[in-house]
From TrEMBL:
It comes from Flexivirga oryzae. PROSITE patterns: VOC. Keywords: Dioxygenase, Lyase, Oxidoreductase. InterPro entries: Glyas_Bleomycin-R_OHBP_Dase, Glyas_Fos-R_dOase_dom, GlyoxalaseI/FosfomycinResist, VOC_core. This is Catechol 2,3-dioxygenase-like lactoylglutathione lyase family enzyme. One of its GO terms (molecular function) is dioxygenase activity. The keyword Lyase applies. Coiled coil: none annotated. The lineage of its organism: Bacteria, Bacillati, Actinomycetota, Actinomycetes, Micrococcales. Gene3D superfamilies: 2,3-Dihydroxybiphenyl 1,2-Dioxygenase, domain 1. The keyword Mitochondrion does not apply. Residues 12-127, 145-263 form the VOC domain.
């Protein structure tokens, strides 16, 4: 099997769903500042698409009393892959939230949900209806698609191993520090350098969610627009070594870190040997040298609040 094809039929990252107390403020942020398109609402739910992506939505917001990650959704090749994965996870003792069935969220489809080793709700689905999307034009500083999701874990090595064993994610690269050990694992389910990464943190939480821009100019224009809107910029602009992608990190109104990026590497060979990058090398974090040096203050923002949704499936 080629080194960039997931053995269990997982194809890509679909969407990240967040529950927030400040629902109205968050809706305005993602629609008016971040550049997503609100395709519809359903009670206290709001669905946001990227104009360049065929996914029905890439972010879902839910109004709730507690801030939490509702779920991370991944695509699958077909219904047979969904059924086979559900049976496999069940036989491995993974807590499945519900048997595979027709999804009731925007775009429908067929899927199921389960808890990962840290208690996050994960959804895998196929046959979700696509939406009309378009080429993002030159100078248009809005997200093309969702790029990747990074999650905090108290034991990132155990979480890495869980995703490799149970979901077939492949390790691409690792960040390492002399005093902290392995700090972040970049994992892939297709030929993108990573769709998921696991960071070392004090508790289970969202580290950041990343959105791909059309190119460098659009990435910088978007970074500037969000800065001008008065949103707190945590780190960037810069370019990471692992993945070779650009980064500008911001705090959304609920304190979740969101990233604009572009030019993330795609792996074109079947055989990839993971690198270990030393975080003490300034070029590991930012090969351009334009961003502030990584510090405890910057890292603290991405630790986020402890997730209130651990091992609790979202209501919808």
């Amino acid at each position: 099997m080629p080194g960039n094809v997931n053995p269990f039929g997982i194809t890509h990252l679909r969407h990240v769903d967040l529950a927030v107390p400040d629902y109205g403020t968050q809706r305005s942020f993602y629609r008016d500042t971040w550049g997503l398109t609100e395709i519809g609402t359903d009670g206290k739910l709001s669905y946001f698409a990227a104009e360049g992506s065929p996914e029905q939505y890439i972010v879902r917001l839910r109004q709730a009393g507690d801030k939490r990650l509702d779920l991370i959704s991944f695509g699958a090749t077909d219904r047979a892959a969904v059924d086979a994965l559900a049976a496999k996870l069940g036989s491995e003792g993974i807590r499945v939230v519900g048997a595979p069935g027709e999804l009731q969220t925007a775009g429908g489809g067929y899927g199921f949900r389960f808890f990962d080793v840290d208690g996050r709700t994960i959804e895998v689905s196929s046959d979700v209806a696509t939406r009309q999307h378009r080429e993002i034009e030159e100078g248009e500083a809005i997200p093309v698609r969702i790029s990747h999701a990074v999650m905090n874990s108290k034991d990132p090595n155990a979480t890495r191993d869980w995703y490799a064993r149970h979901l077939g994610f492949m390790l691409t690269d690792t960040l390492w520090g002399e005093h902290m050990g392995e700090m972040m694992h970049f994992m892939r389910c297709n030929d993108w350098h990573h769709s998921l990464a696991i960071a070392r943190g004090p508790h289970t939480s969202v580290h950041h969610v990343s959105f791909e821009m059309r190119g460098l100019d659009e990435y910088m224009r978007g970074t500037g627009r969000v800065m001008r809107a008065g949103i707190k910029k945590i780190w960037g602009p810069g370019r990471h070594n692992a993945g070779n992608n650009t980064f500008s990190y911001f705090l959304d109104p609920s304190g979740n870190t969101m990233e604009y990026t572009t030019e993330l590497d795609r792996l074109t060979t079947d055989e990839w040997h993971p690198h270990v990058f030393d975080i003490a090398d300034p070029n590991t974090q930012d090969v351009w040298g334009t961003a502030d040096a990584m510090s405890e203050l910057i890292a603290k923002d991405s630790f986020n609040d402890p997730d209130r949704g651990v091992f609790v499936a979202p209501p919808v």
